[in-house]
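[Q] Does anyone have a clean structure-token version of this?
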Amino acid sequence: MSVVKIENSILRGRVTVPASKSVAHRAMICSFLAGGGDVSPLVSSKDMQATAQAIGSLKNGGDVCDCIESGSTLRFMIPVAAALGKTVTFVGSGKLPNRPIGDYLRLLPQHGVTCESEGGLPLKISGKLTAGTFEIAGNVSSQYITGLMLALPVLDGDSEIVLTTPLQSKPYVDMTVDVLKRYGVDVAETERGYFVRGNQRFTVQDFMVEGDWSQAAFFLAAGAIGGDVTVDGLNIGSTQGDKRIVEVIEKFGANVTVTKNSVHAEKSALCGITLDAVDIPDMVPTVAVLAAFASGTTVIKGAERLRYKESDRIESAVANLKKMGVDVTETPDGMIISGGTVHGADIDGYNDHRIVMAFSVAGLFADGVTTITDCESINKSYPDFFEDYNRIGGKANVISNR
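[A] Here you go.
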């Protein structure tokens, strides 16, 4: 296990964030279904490794898909493998074997696929997915919807995805529709959900992956709380839901400047806000840190699905804020934070990349030194985070094997 020691400092300068892993997952699978084409740039992270491994296994006739700790890889590749008629066992590590896949265990057998599972991983599937109507809740995980959208176009027959509850995290589904469109595949939104025509062909092409707004959020928060940071390599017209971080930090009262490919945030007097995070749950750890340094009260709601991520991110963020002396109350779907003095502390990274990176921002401005465990978890999405952080003024010292 590695620990990172964070000393007070100010981030000043420009940073280019890595390519979006959310976009890259989708493009890699589309390229695989197209039968060729390059997807770049790709971050050398565990999540990208997971999708590459899963695709490689299906390409080479393997009977095991190791999704490591990537929920996106797992939920995207299960229906894709089923659509191709593969017999394969999905495995994973960390908390992934216990993350929900129940909707697939219910849906796939209704459409010709045998599932062998005790509720999680390992999961063995066999048989070929058949077209038809797929009824699924929209408030569990948008990843199920994306997985079906990637798989259904190759089936022999038209399909419909019927949402039985309102869709949450819709920007992630919009991203899927956009990437599919770029590969020549049409998905039509309907009053009930989505219509997917069968027998479609994915177009072979080279795909350039845009910068990751989720990762940009950490640096923009650091700028808004007490720095002067410009994040480059962003697509302002992106379908990534997390580009709303600009709107969120502006709502806190931050000084933000937006250009075509960059966003600048500088030290500002921040005030508490109310945020419905239903469409941007991954932003919650960063917003919680912003709230700790804002005057007044911040209410975060609509984030109950965070309880099933790499950690229970509501519980993780609340526990760490309390250790840092912040007045915070946990709620079923979020938290209530009263901003004020933030103290350095020894806190838990919970083997969760977003918790580690968010609280590395808190450590910049806390009163005293902050240490965070499990800092190696950043390898899941942003292995160079601390290099970029230190390059623009941070003081993060990673200590291994402690």
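[Q] Thanks! Anything notable?
[A] DSSP finds twelve helices and 22 strands in the chain.
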